[in-house]
Design a protein that fits this description.
The protein is α+β, with helices and mostly antiparallel strands. It has 3 helices and 2 strands. The protein has a two-stranded antiparallel ribbon. The longest helix has 19 residues, at 40-58. The radius of gyration is 18 Å and the shape is extended. The relative contact order is 0.07.
């Protein structure tokens, strides 16, 4: 199964070049397949975050607590939360 798809993107020289692109799931799958020891820290982090999100699905109050803690940390540094929404579209 291919996770990279060629899209024509504008290069720094202004020309359109076919570039391999992947969505978030595809990138994670690619990273998981890298046999290099240098990829291991990211793989462990990815597994930990995945585990935490599964726990939050089981206990939604954990997600609320994580959000409150993140908000507290952001307030202490003067940062503001920006919400980014992504939308999936089906064609066919």
């Amino acid at each position: 199964m291919t996770f990279c798809h060629g899209l024509k993107l504008t290069a720094s020289d202004g020309k359109q070049r076919e570039t391999n692109c992947a969505n978030t799931e595809g990138l994670f799958r690619i990273i998981q397949s890298i046999p290099s020891p240098k990829a291991e820290p990211f793989k462990r982090w990815l597994a930990q975050v995945g585990y935490e999100r599964v726990k939050e699905i089981e206990s939604p109050e954990l997600a609320s607590a994580r959000t409150r803690e993140a908000d507290r940390r952001m307030e202490s540094t003067g940062q503001r939360r920006i919400t980014i929404r992504t939308y999936g579209f089906l064609y066919g």
